[in-house]
Amino acid sequence: MADRPGEPRATGPKQASVGVHGITETLTYVQAETGTVRGVRTLLALNQVDGFDCPSCAWGDPEPGHRKHAEFCENGAKAVAWEATRKRVDASFFAQHTIADLRGRDGHWLEAQGRLSEPMHLPPGGDRYLPIAWDDALRLVADRLRALPDPNRAVFYTSGRTSNEAAFVYQLLARRLGTNNLPDCSNMCHESSGAALTETIGVGKGTVSLQDITDHAQLIMIVGQNPGTCHPRMLTALEQAKRRGAKIIAVNPLPEAGFGRFRNPQTLRGLAGPGTQLADRYLPVRVNGDLALFAGLNKALLAAEETAPGTVLDHDFIDRYCDGFEQAAAAWQALDWERVQELTGLGRRAVEYTAADVMAADSVVVCWAMGLTQHHNAVPTIREIVNFLLLRGNIGRPGAGPAPIRGHSNVQGDRTMGIWEKMPDSFLDALRAEFGFDPPRDHGWDTVESIRAMRDGKVDVFFALGGNFAAATPDTTVTEKALANCALTVHVATKLNRSHLCHGAEALLLPCLGRTERDIQAGVEQFVTVEDSMAMVHASHGRLAPGSPQLRSEVSIVTALGRELFGDAMGWERMGRDYRVIRRHIEHVVPGFHAFEERVAQPGGFMLPRGPRDSRTFPTATGKARFTVNAVTAVRVPDGHLLLTTVRSHDQFNTTVYGLDDRYRGIEGGRRVVFLNEDDMKTLAVSAGDLVDLVSHYPDRERRARDFRVVPYPVPRGCAATYFPEANLLVPLDSTAETSNTPTTKSVVISVQPATAPG
Ligand SMILES: Nc1nc2c(c(=O)[nH]1)N[C@H]1C(S)=C(S)[C@@H](COP(=O)(O)OP(=O)(O)OC[C@H]3O[C@@H](n4cnc5c(=O)[nH]c(N)nc54)[C@H](O)[C@@H]3O)O[C@H]1N2
Ligand SMILES: Nc1nc2c(c(=O)[nH]1)N[C@H]1C(S)=C(S)[C@@H](COP(=O)(O)OP(=O)(O)OC[C@H]3O[C@@H](n4cnc5c(=O)[nH]c(N)nc54)[C@H](O)[C@@H]3O)O[C@H]1N2
Ligand SMILES: [Mo]
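That is the input. Now the predicted structure with MGD docked in place:
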């Protein structure tokens, strides 16, 4: 990728988050992209009961009466401005730029050109995209899909901004065609959480509500998550929790600014005062050391119980609701403290003090995100966290439970709607009953399997509803070639990105409405629905005039394609004209959506049922919550190598780079940096500012990412960090988490070598 090495400056990690600086920076960006009046009007509709859902993260909204006039964060504001920009990428843009030219630009430049504004077609052998009429474009896709010798030669990718309504009709289209090839960004995100939670508590989602965090939890652990950047509104909830006396423990190899003082920009106190110190304890765990840490905590809790029987564990809960305790306890007894210390990089005392904090708290919530899910042992790590919660009955009561904090604003809802390559038979049965066709039963391909299939020539049509497949997935070089192997690639998108340039023999670029825009079908304004991290389902009403008259909604594109492909026996046209028809189907097919239309009309929407939380029912294989035995492992790092984790900067949303600064980590003006421990720098004989290559050594071959500046940083010894997606080419396609098959983008074994000239 032509991501030229800027000349980043490093000023060291910051101790505090948000504050006035953040607001001015955001307003400048909003103004530059949208012009002020449009910008401010847009922002005020954000996350209000009659406004649109923030397209950025999946953090939950406060109850309707408790919303601030400005219920958004710095990064939500950027996401909205990014979508509401006045710049346009139209036919004249593509006439001026060949694909080869565009492939030479970096992702930041591509998206900065503005909104895609008309459908475009790259004919076989063409060197640039040309305009095409909507009807012709949809007919082309339908023709190619119909001509497939086997429906499994098509792949339908989804990114997590897609609404419930669009996701539902999209999975319906794929299954009606006859395939379960529905990979999504969740395969790279919280798949490990889903797998671990389904196995142990019977539901693949968190069980915690926003009020559990703000009003009830006595201890909140934030593990492998960077709320100051990725879920800034969570800081407001944590501040509320602190004010009523809750404790907070952060577990992270990097001392993120969000754990320090928080200056709430939405209160006068926050703007003027010193702010609230959020974390009471910070554990600088080694990258991939979390399984060992939680096993160590469980060992410490068990030991304390043996010293003072009946005071630590919740035996009543364990006996009534759980199984597998004895085996798990035996494993903790056998666990060696030295191993815990070696793998976590933390002293035994630090673990025992933390266990004491846990014992002092009547209710504990554990929040986590990508710091846990993208490792080989991600699923056992999260199972071990469930063990930790079960030991003290920290599930199914106020202020307690597991809280995987989701990424994309509707990634959780998309799953609920059936975007998954292996939906259970109960869902497929309901689909058959509702629509009268036999959905395929064989599991489809997830993201990694889809890349392999494309690489191996098993895919003719790749269709993406949003996202940036080429940049977000691992092994960039392999993935880009894999996409080029397809006969047809189709992207429904708002902005131009790298994936649109890694095209098949023929390609289509279909521009769609964003979350902020008014969606009118057959003269009637429509709304869509989304589900947040806390399983609240609510409506989202676009407020802005569409960026171009040619934009169509995702629902309208998918239903029009459905009609073109299958005729109208299933009522595609009605679904596309009136989204209430889709919601009625959802009500019949998806559990928890009874009286959908009425309940979603209530301010704030409604909460989906969560058995473990509401009634301590655990729909697992045994009908009980399950303790598991998890071998305490971590990635083995050979001498002279480091374990690299890949993180987001404060100025990006996944592959969308808003700007080149990472304010909280003190990086300005560039992204090609690698954060190293100063002792490791001595051993490696590198100095601050040196230009180095990062080289990953997986058995199949060497992978090299060139030209990164060394930045000394307080990461644990033997660990390193750099930014996603620049580092994705280092992640081998075959290096995935057990069970969830999530790429191990947070543990890549690398060596740091002097920069070589591009070969
Ligand atoms: N502004 C902004 N908001 C976003 C996004 C964005 O890109 N920008 N992306 C959205 C999406 S899709 C997602 S999934 C979420 C992601 O939200 P996060 O998961 O918070 O984001 P990451 O930057 O991937 O960082 C994970 C955190 O884990 C830490 N970490 C890395 N390795 C380890 C480890 O081995 N152990 C532990 N304990 N910690 C580790 C990192 O230091 C970092 O603080 O955010 C969502 N919100
Ligand atoms: N190394 C490394 N790799 C990672 C991660 C990591 O932490 N490290 N994180 C992983 C995670 S958690 C995730 S979720 C994935 C993200 O993977 P994706 O979801 O595929 O990527 P995004 O960058 O979120 O997609 C951005 C693009 O979506 C399109 N878009 C934006 N809004 C809309 C909309 O409303 N509709 C439509 N149709 N298109 C829209 C725009 O064209 C934009 O360019 O990346 C994964 N990859
Ligand atoms: Mo994500």
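The pocket of MGD (ligand 1) is lined by residues 56-57, 75, 189, 223-226, 229-231, 251-254, 256, 285, 287-288, 290, 369-371, 407-408, 645, 647-648, 652-654, 746 (CB under 6 Å).
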